Structures are given as structure tokens and as C-alpha cells.
Prior knowledge:
AB_hydrolase_3; hydrolase; 9 helices; alpha/beta; Rossmann fold; 40% helix; GDXG_lipolytic_enzyme; nine-stranded mixed β-sheet; AB_hydrolase_fold
Amino acid sequence: MRTDFGGVSLQSQALGLVLRHSARRVIGAWSLAPTLPWPYAVVDHLGQLQRKVPGTRFATTVVGGCRARIVSPARPVAGRHILYFHGGAFLIGGWHLHGGLLSRIAAATGATITSVEYRQLPKHSIEQSIRDGVAAYRHLLAHGIPAHEIVFMGDSAGGFLTFTVADRARAEGLPAPAGLVAMSPLVDLDFLRTPLGRRRRGDLLFGPRALQTFARIAAGLHPDGVHTPIDCEHASLPPVLLQISSSEALYKQVRRLAELLEAAGVPTDLHVWPGQIHVFQAASILPEAAEAISALATWSARQWAAASGEGATRAASA
């Protein structure tokens, strides 16, 4: 089911203008010389400037062999856990960059969040990122958190992992989580198949050359191809929530994935906003971000409730 949210706030318009003339140009420069020693870690540390919800607690741990952050809200709700995969084009982010967003999601959902610092490009392949995600899920299950209490969630590249980790977990015989939430997810690497030019203009953050450069780097580490959310066994996936702006370069990909999921019989909700930046949920100054996080919290609460009932029924009949 598709839900369209209307309007573009003044804050959103101003932020889009600023990013078009700053971050988009930096990303464009990167796309011309991606092999230079770009300071990816510096970008992550900028996240320390973000405001976090008061009362949120952050702890460091190791899950499945990877460093991870445990984010706990001031008022945790029992039986609610999120396994979070951060975005950043498989190149940046994770430890600090997503702290503000994670604190707001934790506060809105009441869930305890495990955010995994999975291995990333260019040193590691996306396949290794997927393995780290599955290992983290195994860790949560092995430590007594049942699958019906866990929602997978991610943004951008992390949205890609939300689906591919769930699909790999199924293939390895693990139970499905309660649901999947993906914000502005990367769905396919079809940028390599579309010539540069007017038919692919990018968006407020990414120019067409940047999208192709990223896809070329990812494909170069996967000579046999990259397993993407398009390739997953969709019928076996749990309920899905997709959030995207219609002005994003990834919009058509996400809309196609929603159609494939619905055709496979997966309960799918597609939330669409006009005129927003990529992963606008991370910008705390935007009213649209608050609206989106509230919507995903409501959706997740429904999945936890439904999955908890099914889990209790299975336990009683065992």
C-alpha cells in the first residue's frame, strides 16, 4: 500500500539548497578520483555534532565479530529490538554519523537498537557486509532475543543490507524477523547500465557520475555479480516498510521493489514524500523527518504486536 505525504517545508527547501552547493560538489569530486585517500573517517566524526534525544544511552559491544553500538531509549519497551544497518554507500558512517538518528528512532519506538559496524568498501566487499549482518543476527538469537522481537532496519546502503541479510538468514535456516524497515534504500546497481546524460540526473546529493562510480567500485569486488534486494526470494520476506522521497535518484528502484514485493504477496507499505534529500529522516531540523520517524514507529509497533502473538502461539503448541 502506498501512502503519499504532502508538502515541502521551508527547512527542507533550505537544506536541499545548501547540500546541492556543498555536499553534492564534494561527492562529485570524489567520483572523479575515488582512489585518492579520502578521509572517510572524518565524515563519520561529524556525527558527533548531532543532537541526541536526552536520556538515550549508548554502549559499545561486539556482535558476531563486529563492533556494535547498543542504543537504549530513556523508556525502553520490553520485547522490542532493532538490528540496524547504517548507510553511507558502504564507504562511510556508522559509529558517530547515525547517532542522532538512532536516538530518535529509539525514543519513538521504545526499542533497544543494535547498530552493527559491518565491513565496508573499498577494503571489503558487499558480500562481507552481508555476512557480518547475518552474524550479528545469529548473535542476537543466540543471546535469547527471539526473532519475533526483532525488526531489521537500515538507511541507504543499510537498507540494501536490511533485505539481503534477511534473505541470507532465511537461506541459512534462521527464522524471519518481525519486519523490515528501509529508508531510501539502495536496491540495485543498475547505474552501470544507464548512460550518463539527461535521462539520469541524480538528485540533491548525488550526481549521475557519482552513482556510476559507486556501482563500478562495488561491481569490481564482485566478479560474479552482487546479490541485491531485487534478487532476494521476496515471497519469504516478512512485512516491509519502505520510505523514500520521489525526488531521490533511488526512487524508481524503490518503487520497483515495492511492486515486486506486493506481487510476491508480502505485506508492503510504501511511504513517499516530495522534494526531500536522501535519507531526510536523519535531519532533525526537518518536520518531515519527525513525521517519517513517527510513521515508522507506528508501523513497527504493529509488526511487533502481530509477530509477538504468532510467537506465543507457536511456543504454546510446541
